[in-house]
């Protein structure tokens, strides 16, 4: 039923540029890591181990999600840290407005840093399209420090740039499905 699945879900060339040039398979590596040490087991034991490990993983993550919902955290732990770090970085960017109607800027990074290899890099921002030439906002689904600097400059809310799957509700929903105990397996 490949025809029923949209192209962008399985073809890098149709994903709107989000993963352009990225050819890794990190998700399968992550899953392999969860099952570390289990590959040499007989199939039934492998099944059971996979089941119990996944259940433990879901229990921990579900609780983390519930706690974050209860404390009104807006985003997943990963993105929360990244956005806060980008907000701090944005404070040191130099920003120049070119067109207030279209929201065009250039943003220069690492002002005054002489040793860094990224010294003085300049990026173009189009705030109307939420676009930055660094490409990170499109690839990662949350705002780069350059766009955050422009948003701050124009008092524009950056939240529409954070993809819905990074919300705490999505995080909780991902881990919400329950596993049910297996009983009497050896009888
Ligand atoms: Zn950028």
TrEMBL record:
Source superkingdom: Eukaryota
One family name in Pfam for this protein: SWIM
Keywords: Metal-binding, Zinc, Zinc-finger
UniProt KW Zinc-finger keyword: yes
MF (Gene Ontology): zinc ion binding
Protein name stated in the entry: SWIM-type domain-containing protein
InterPro entries in the cross-refs: Znf_PMZ, Znf_SWIM
Residue ranges of every copy of the SWIM-type domain listed in the record: 123-155
Classification via PROSITE patterns: ZF_SWIM
């Amino acid at each position: 039923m490949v025809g029923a699945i949209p192209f962008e879900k399985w073809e890098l060339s149709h994903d709107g540029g989000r993963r352009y040039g990225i050819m890794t398979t990190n998700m399968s590596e992550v899953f392999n890591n969860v099952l570390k040490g289990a590959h040499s087991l007989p199939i039934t034991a492998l099944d059971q181990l996979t089941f119990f490990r996944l259940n433990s993983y879901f229990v921990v993550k579900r609780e983390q999600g519930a706690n974050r919902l209860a404390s009104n955290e807006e985003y997943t732990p990963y993105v929360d840290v990244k956005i806060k770090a980008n907000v701090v970085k944005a404070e040191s960017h130099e920003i120049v407005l070119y067109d207030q109607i279209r929201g065009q800027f250039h943003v220069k990074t690492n002002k005054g840093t002489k040793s860094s290899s990224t010294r003085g890099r300049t990026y173009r921002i189009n705030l109307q399209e939420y676009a930055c030439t660094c490409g990170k906002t499109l690839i990662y689904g949350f705002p780069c420090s350059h766009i955050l600097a422009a948003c701050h400059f124009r008092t524009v809310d950056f939240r529409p740039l954070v993809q819905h799957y990074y919300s705490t509700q999505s995080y909780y929903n991902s881990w919400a499905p329950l596993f049910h105990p297996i009983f009497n397996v050896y009888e």
